[in-house]
From TrEMBL:
Keyword tags: 4Fe-4S, Iron, Iron-sulfur, Metal-binding, Oxidoreductase, PQQ biosynthesis, S-adenosyl-L-methionine
Taxonomic lineage of the native organism: Bacteria, Pseudomonadati, Pseudomonadota, Gammaproteobacteria, Pseudomonadales
Alphabetized PANTHER family for the sequence: PQQA PEPTIDE CYCLASE, RADICAL SAM DOMAIN PROTEIN
NCBIfam families: PQQ_syn_pqqE, rSAM_more_4Fe4S
EC number: 1.21.98.4
Subunit structure: Interacts with PqqD. The interaction is necessary for activity of PqqE.
Protein name stated in the entry: PqqA peptide cyclase
GO biological process: molybdopterin cofactor biosynthetic process; pyrroloquinoline quinone biosynthetic process
InterPro entries: 4Fe4S-binding_SPASM_dom (IPR023885), Aldolase_TIM (IPR013785), Elp3/MiaA/NifB-like_rSAM (IPR006638), MoaA_NifB_PqqE_Fe-S-bd_CS (IPR000385), PQQ_synth_PqqE_bac (IPR011843), PqqE-like (IPR017200), Radical_SAM_PqqE_MftC-like (IPR050377), rSAM (IPR007197)
Top-rank EC class of the record's enzyme: oxidoreductase
Cofactor comment text: Binds 1 [4Fe-4S] cluster. The cluster is coordinated with 3 cysteines and an exchangeable S-adenosyl-L-methionine.
Assigned protein family: Belongs to the radical SAM superfamily. PqqE family.
Gene that encodes it: pqqE
Pathway the protein contributes to: Cofactor biosynthesis; pyrroloquinoline quinone biosynthesis
Length: 384
């Protein structure tokens, strides 16, 4: 049972409802991306909520006020009840989004998702060429399948949203990545430079691009964006810079336990997708109502408000904008989740970010040397 005592001054009286529900339906996945944000020890969490347990979670979250529901994983397509879950979510009035690698998607499934009322599908790619894509995905068929399914998503009338996680091994292909997206008639393209959580953090030295690589990619994206806008082209390019090249932290999750609620495959409720690694007790939907979890549990209140903050955040005039940054990043880099996110140049730990940038300037081993996300490796990590 989680500790439900709260050390924070923010109370349920001042806290608004969750708006965004992320349902991590499963940790199972046919791919092995070395930058996956799932926990390193995912192999030890075998149980998954049943169909009726998920629908109960959706119902409770909707009653609290949640309006957007993302289905993610792992690969959510491996859940055989996905159509049923989509239909239930749609009946409850959610705007639904499937976040998928496209592996396991078929024309028939796509039609079933449409009939069930799915609003939005995002397909992720690893690279713009088959060889690098498949090497990163750990699958020889991945690229071909993704191309076919991206086209099928478009043909089914969905807005096509493509996601490329970029890093030092594919970021120099940015021009080809954008050209591929235009050839696929993408409506939105997220060029998201890898953020370092889970497996990506484990592989950070081998993934972080150099400053020159990042600057080049951003310049190319800006050039394409200007060109597309001038032509009145419908495709929108979104470029996400990695935290490691910022001087101020992001307001992660728009504030801890503020609008975002994530449920892991086994029913653990988290204020963000990475919080499972923190030395904080988080409640399970199998033991508590979502209302209790959201408003009253220790885990969700742990970093709400400002009273938990040590210096330099406590007296910082930017704290209401960035909330001290990301708690998970603070924990991963300092061992203390209440520290200022070291991304911030005011943090006494900012030198760790500078050291990572310096490391990125050094030659790094090839893709094959990265640690790929799979059950076997996860089990070895669990045994520690
Ligand atoms: Fe957990 Fe930022 S990812 S607080």
């Amino acid at each position: 049972m989680p500790n439900t005592g709260s050390s924070c001054t923010e109370t349920s009286a001042s806290q608004g409802p969750p708006l965004w529900l992320l349902a991590e339906l499963t940790y199972r996945c046919p791919l092995q991306c070395p930058y996956c944000s799932n926990p390193l020890d995912f192999a030890q969490y075998k149980t998954e909520l049943s169909t009726s347990e998920w629908i109960d979670v959706f119902t409770q979250a909707r009653a609290l006020g949640a309006a957007q529901l993302g289905f993610s994983g792992g690969e959510p397509l491996v859940r055989e009840d996905l159509v049923e879950l989509i239909a239930a979510a749609r009946d409850l009035g959610y705007y639904t989004n499937l976040i998928s690698s496209g592996m396991g998607l078929t024309q028939a499934k796509l039609e079933a998702f449409r009939d069930a009322g799915l609003d939005h599908i995002q397909i992720s790619f690893q690279a713009s060429d088959e060889q690098v894509n498949n090497l990163l995905a750990g699958s020889r068929k991945a690229f071909e399948q993704k191309l076919a399914m991206a086209r099928a998503v478009k043909a089914a009338g969905y807005p096509m949203v493509l996601n490329f996680v970029t890093h030092r091994h594919n970021i120099d292909q940015i021009e080809r990545i954008i050209e591929l997206c235009l050839a696929l008639e993408a409506d939105f393209v997220e060029l998201a430079t890898c953020q370092y959580y889970g497996w990506a953090h484990l592989n950070r030295a081998g993934l972080l691009p150099t400053k020159a690589q990042l600057d080049h990619a951003e310049a190319v994206t800006n050039r394409y964006r200007a060109q597309l806008e001038a032509e009145g082209h419908p495709c929108k390019l979104i470029f996400v810079t990695p935290d490691y090249y910022e001087e101020r932290p992001k307001g992660c999750m728009n504030g801890w336990g503020n609008i975002f609620l994530s449920i892991t495959p086994d029913g653990t409720a988290l204020p963000c997708h990475s919080a499972r690694q923190l030395p904080v007790s988080f409640p399970s939907v199998k033991e508590h109502s979502l209302s209790h979890i959201w408003y009253d549990s220790f885990g969700f209140n742990r970093f709400r408000g400002y009273d938990w903050m040590p210096e330099p955040c406590r007296s910082c005039d930017e704290k209401e904008r960035d909330f001290g940054g990301c708690r998970c990043q603070a924990y991963m880099l300092t061992g203390d989740a209440s520290q200022a996110d070291p991304v911030c140049s005011k943090s006494p730990h900012h030198h760790k970010i500078l050291a990572a940038r310096a490391e990125a300037e050094q030659p790094q081993p090839p893709i094959e040397a990265l640690t790929f996300r799979n059950e076997r490796t996860s089990r070895i990590i669990c045994k520690g």
